[in-house]
Amino acid sequence: MAGRDVDGQGPVRRGGAARGPGAPGGPGSEAAADCPEPLSTAEAPADGAALPAWMRLYFYGMHGITLDVLVSSAWRFARSPDLRMLGFSSPYRCLLHSLTHLALEKVYLQQPRCPSAFVFNFLVYPSAHVGLQTLAGQALLLSLGGEPAAPGALELALQYVLALYHCQVFLKRFLRLRYAGRQRQDAHTLAPGARTPAVAGGRRRQPRDPRGTEGGPSQGLPDPLRFLFFGMHGFLDEIFFTFFFNVLGQGAGATSGHTSLWSFFMYGSCSFVVEKLYFHLYYSRGWGTWKRVPIYVIFIYAWELSWGLGLRTCGACSWDYSHYPLNFMGLITLMYLPGWVFLSVYQDLLSNVLWRVQYVPAN
């Protein structure tokens, strides 16, 4: 949530809040072995159901913003090298990514009906992906008062490459995520050998080990996937914050928010550590929310200052709070304290959801 000034567009906010991610096949082909079953509870593994629709929409929007930032940052850097590595997207595009990729998921799950896996993977799905993304982009331009134009060859080629990535990499793994509901998760954590949940103030507390007992069926997402989720969620936070900040400063003329590629590593590492603090302080020590939050905020400010000092030495720091009151070295400011508190609480809520998400690897 830390703000920054970028090309006179106003501050960007880096969220300390948490943020994570992934299967094709055709009959008689090698790809068929990797194809997930339809997203239904009946076909899901015994220890979890398919991710609910709201969660898939959330992930698809966050993942779409991440791709926007990566592509726009690479394009901007190629034209004018800048170590700040700025990228752009908007809440509008986030909504479009959520809806279009939910529709493309339905297309992807029809792969077993296609007689040729090659035709589906390299022609059918890419065609649907490119067509739907092009229509969505034109609709967005019209809604913002722009003039739609036919996509150029380079844009179509990029969309085709992204379609292959979605089909062969992202969806192939994303659709292996399973969700264990609260009741199921509590049953796992209270497996033989687990401690009985503590009771505080007459209210039942969550089990002490949210990730399951040793050898239990529910261990949550692996750490690398948690880091990936937190980093992508950092992009989401910054894009939304800077977009609304730009709306306040520029009015209806603002159409995008911005962030930096460095934010992925700052958010990913910061939120990863804050989650570990949450597990320890709440489940081992029993600390309440308002006792934990000051620890989170102190760590977040120290993390932001450390990253800022490091990036500033090589000209890659994309924020400067020198014109804000209550700032230190232009790298941190107490002006954003309420936002950090909000995002710290939201991080705990996301962690509660993430430990019920499991990744089921292919056989």
Q: Brief description of this entry?
A:
The chain has helices spanning 53-79, 91-108, 117-143, 153-174, 182-189, 223-250, 261-284, 289-313, 337-354, and strands spanning 49-50, 86-89, 177-179, 199-200, 203-204, 257-260, 327-328, 332-333, 357-359. The chain has 363 residues and is mostly helical. The protein is globular, with a radius of gyration of 22 Å.
Describe this structure in words.
There is one protein chain. The chain starts with 48 loop residues before the first strand and ends with a strand. The longest helix has 28 residues, at 223-250. The protein has helices at residues 53-79, 91-108, 117-143, 153-174, 182-189, 223-250, 261-284, 289-313, 337-354; strands spanning 49-50, 86-89, 177-179, 199-200, 203-204, 257-260, 327-328, 332-333, 357-359. α1 (53-79) packs across α2 (91-108), α7 (261-284) crosses α9 and α8 (289-313) crosses α9. The protein is mainly α. Strands 1-3-9 form a three-stranded antiparallel β-sheet, with no helix packed on it. It has nine helices and nine strands. The model is unreliable at 7-46, 183-208 and 211-218 (pLDDT under 50). The radius of gyration is 22 Å and the shape is globular.
**Major pleated sheet:** 3 strands, antiparallel
Q: What characteristic shape results from the CA principal axes?
A: globular
Q: Kindly report the spatial arrangement of strands forming the biggest sheet.
A: 1-3-9
The rounded Rg comes to 22 Å
Question: How widely separated are the two ends?
Answer: 40 Å
The unreliable regions are 7-46, 183-208, 211-218
Residue share in helices? 40-55%
Percent strand: 5-15%
One letter per element, helices H and strands E, the order comes to EHEHHHEHEEHEHHEEHE
Count of helical stretches: 9
Number of strands: 9
| Helix/strand/pairing category | mainly alpha
Give average pLDDT, whole number.
80
